[in-house]
Design brief:
8-stranded mixed beta sheet, 17 helices
Length: 500
């Protein structure tokens, strides 16, 4: 005979065993942590399901147990004992978000900015892992170690140093291979390439594959494009340069004769013309070839949004309390700061960029339809994008592109884990995986804005209620209370403004 449970009796039955357990302390791992009564969105693209209990022991998920009356009536497990409990009733639990295009920045424009500022924001935005692309290597490796050992409140850090052909004076294939070997010996997890010639790219990628190093390619207007990534085996193409230009019929973007690539206003102005110059049939062939060669695409859709709507970018609501004055100053138009190119930006520039986004989004949908692996990163610290907030804005832009929120969460979790080669450890709410999870006040499938740490306003019973935000970010089994982290950020910004 099947035992019948009402929702009330099931809840009482499950709470009985741990009523005395307390909520965890911010930044303190316990031996056994229970997340109770959660609705779970996994990172594999399956629908939300719950209620569930998730048991974390030290730094691993050890149990994910169904709590619904049907499962309990069929002999499902009862309550789990725990040293601390997070009550997730009415809340959603996701794998920790992964930011696959991040920058560890302790200065902007040569002025110091505390690293705790961005680390705290990342965690408060639910980001439990970052792929750092191109930061100064010794410091990035030091922060990676400190994060892994729990010495600082920080996401996991995967270090992809810059392979700089010119600055490191890599002149031939032998020197390219030597540079790759030196990065491996240094402890790099992968390599970022930018501004690279074809023969150098071929040699360095071949050596990187032999050594097990993954490669992120920030293509520019240069000799190499997506066809080279396809041929040489790049792991992921960053942003979108390299893809449409590989589909231009005569192989050359039609710049005006006055164009200067090193003038960033020129560079970004005419970047907004690029997708319309690509031949649609050729573009589909490029995308299909990327899929066949297992080249992923990390489009970082947030980072160029100011180009299509500068006023929106300059007046984001979280700037009021959380924008550090060093970063604020860096954002202002200034030809000496990379990405601060809005000098003489026009309505015509914005119109071209709006069309560029439309075509870019269509290409991303086509890449997905063909079976391509799409990831996410925010490239924040440039172009009016704040750390963490930029990744969530990128998720909103993927929804604008036509992706279902379930797929978007998969792109920011399970897909990003695959790009990192960590799909057997990260990006899932699954027993045996690392305890990297977030507890969210609200349903991100209904409104991705609930992921913003500043929350959202809702109307309930005719009254305005402020809700939303990530409540807990659990990284490597360590629970961080997101509101406390953001309070620290707020105070940090207030103190810096008082000194500024």
């Amino acid at each position: 005979m099947i035992r019948r449970f009402t929702s009330a009796s099931a809840a009482a039955f499950l709470l009985a065993g741990f009523a005395a357990a307390q909520a965890p302390q911010n930044g303190h791992r316990v031996r056994r942590l229970l997340i109770h009564n959660a609705t779970v969105i996994d990172g594999n693209g399956t629908p939300a399901s719950g209620p569930k209990d998730i048991v974390i022991e030290n730094n691993l998920i050890t149990q994910v147990t169904q709590l619904d009356p049907v499962a309990l009536g069929r002999g499902g497990r009862g309550q789990a004992q725990a040293d601390a409990v997070i009550d997730a009733t009415g809340k959603y639990v996701l794998p920790g978000l992964i930011n696959n295009h991040a920058h560890l920045q302790e200065e902007r424009g040569g002025k110091p900015q505390p690293i705790e500022y961005e680390l705290n924001i990342w965690l408060a935005c639910g980001i439990t892992a970052i792929r750092d692309v191109g930061s100064p290597t010794p410091r990035a490796l030091e922060l990676r170690k400190m994060s892994a050992e729990g010495e600082i409140a920080a996401p996991r850090i995967f270090v992809y140093p810059m392979f700089e052909q010119v600055r490191n004076q890599v002149r031939n294939a032998d020197e390219a291979r030597a540079r790759v070997r030196s990065l491996k010996q240094m402890g790099a997890d992968g390599i970022k390439i930018l501004g690279i010639d074809r023969d150098i790219m071929q040699a360095m990628e071949d050596e990187a594959h032999k050594l097990g190093l993954r490669i992120a390619h920030h293509a520019g207007v240069e000799e190499t494009n997506a066809w080279d990534d396809i041929r040489f085996g790049t792991t992921s193409i960053e942003h979108w340069y390299g893809i449409p230009d590989a589909a231009i019929e005569d192989g050359v973007q039609h710049f005006p004769s006055s164009y200067n690539y090193n003038n960033e206003t020129d560079r970004f102005r005419y970047a907004g013309h690029l997708f319309r110059e690509a031949d649609p049939e050729r573009l589909t062939k490029v995308l299909a070839a990327m899929v066949n060669a297992h080249v992923a695409w990390d489009p970082t859709m947030d980072i160029y949004e100011a180009s299509r709507d500068l006023q929106r970018a300059q007046t984001q609501p979280w700037f009021a309390e959380y924008l550090h004055p060093t970063l604020e100053e860096y954002f202002r138009p200034n030809p000496t700061n990379h990405g601060s190119y809005f000098i003489g930006w026009t309505s015509t520039d914005e119109a071209f960029w709006k069309e560029n986004y439309r075509l870019w989004m269509a290409a991303l949908r086509e890449f997905d339809r063909l079976g391509g692996l799409i990831g996410m990163g925010d490239d924040a610290g440039f172009i009016y994008q704040m750390y963490g907030f930029g990744l969530i804005r990128g998720m909103e832009l993927h929804q604008e592109a036509g992706f279902d929120p379930i797929r978007i969460i998969q792109q920011a979790t399970g897909n990003n884990a695959r790009i990192l080669g960590q799909e057997d450890k990260l990006g899932r709410v699954r027993a045996g995986f690392a305890a990297d999870l977030i507890v969210v006040n609200g349903n991100p499938l209904e409104n991705l804005k609930v992921l913003y740490p500043t929350g959202v306003d809702e109307i309930r019973d005719g009254k305005t209620v402020h809700t939303g935000g990530v409540e807990w970010t659990i990284k490597d089994g360590i629970p961080y209370h997101a509101p406390q982290l953001m309070q620290k950020v707020k105070q940090m910004v207030a103190d810096a403004r008082a000194r500024h």
